[in-house]
Every structure is written in structure tokens, then in C-alpha cells.
């Protein structure tokens, strides 16, 4: 019995719940956004914390906040973010069971980029929750919604890759440069896709070729130029 003769059944139920460590990922792109109430880091944290409380009260699991990743003034266009990298490390080390965010673009600006993170989450059995998109992979409908969206993202990624390959093949067939530095050549300033011979470097290339013809071994060519 609890105080005033009341039953402590609710406390017992909480103790019997499966505990799941949650990581909250919060991000704003600019310092100005960080101080604006709607969408600020504090607002995001409060919203996600309330979600864990609701989840705990409506299921047989206790979702509690284990880590909070506060990314202030960082762009979501890449993964060069200290808190994001700390989050990845914690996922790999099994420190969190659930990753929550208010919107998917807080984590990644592109679904194609998010696809790689999703693979990591699945490999470590980490539940993913994004409130705005209504994704909660602890539920069947949440998993279905996310997988359907990711299927579209994967299709986009594969189509982009295919278009890039076709474009590079076409450029090669036209004799145009596809990137990278080539010794013996410079990029023509008047025609960016065309290479022109660099006379000084061309001498070195010809010398290397003639040395190979004489020695017939790459192993012996390198010492010859030291």
C-alpha cells in the first residue's frame, strides 16, 4: 500500500516494464534559429521528452532519455557534425535503443542520405521515431510507412547513380574529361571539358615511358626518378 492507504500498482507496473534507452537528436542550422521558440533546441527536446512519457504510459515499455544530442548552428547537408558523430558512436556501442527526432530533416536533409543511417539503425536493432512524418518503427504501421518512403529514396538513389554513369560514359565517348588530375595535361581554360598538353609535364611522361621500355619494370622505374 502507498501513502494514504492507496495501492502502489502503478509503481509496480512501471518497474516491470522493459526499459529502453532513448537518444534525442536536436538540430538547428543557425544561431538565430536556436533562440526562436518554435523549432528551437529546447522546444524540440521538450516535445520529444513528452513523447517518451506518452509512449511509456501507453505501452509495456519504459522509454527514458539516456542521451541528448544538441546540434546548434550545423547544416544537415552532410554528416560533419560533432553531435551526429557522437550519436553514431553511441549506436555502434549499443548505448541507445531508440533514436528520436521531431523531423527527418533535423537528422538529414535528404532521404537518400538517411538511407545509410537507417541501415545502421536496423543492424543494431535501434527503433527510429520521427514525429512530423509519424514514423515509429516500434509499431507495424510506423515500420511500413518508413520502409515505403525509403523504397522511393532507394529508387531515386539508383536512378541518380545510373544517370551519372551514363553522363560520364557519354563524356568519355566525346573525349571529354570526367574529373581528376592527369599528369601531362592541363584543363583548357577556354573549354573546361577538354585537356591540353602541358609541355613540361609531357617531358616527364615521355621519360617515364622510355624508361619503362628500357627496364620493363615499374619497380625499377621509381628508383630511377628519386
Key structural traits:
single chain; 226 residues; alpha/beta; Rossmann fold; 5-stranded mixed sheet; two-stranded antiparallel ribbon; 7 strands
* Main sheet record: 5 strands, mixed
Number of helices: 9
Please give the share of residues in helix: 40-55%
Q: What is the CATH level 1 assignment of the largest domain?
A: Alpha Beta
**Low-confidence runs (pLDDT<50, min 5 residues)?**
none
Using the coordinates shown, work out and report the CATH topology of the largest domain: Rossmann fold
CATH architecture of the largest domain: 3-Layer(aba) Sandwich
Verbal overview:
With 226 residues, this protein is an alpha/beta fold. The protein folds into 2 domains: 3-155, Rossmann fold, CATH 3.40.50.1390; 185-224, no CATH class. Helices cover 51% and strands 19% of the residues. It is built from 9 helices and 7 strands. The chain has helices at 9-16, 31-35, 41-57, 82-92, 104-107, 111-123, 140-173, 199-215, 218-224; strands at 18-28, 61-72, 98-101, 127-130, 135-136, 185-188, 191-197. The protein has a 5-stranded mixed sheet with strand order 2-1-3-4-5, with helices on both faces. The longest helix has 34 residues, at 140-173.
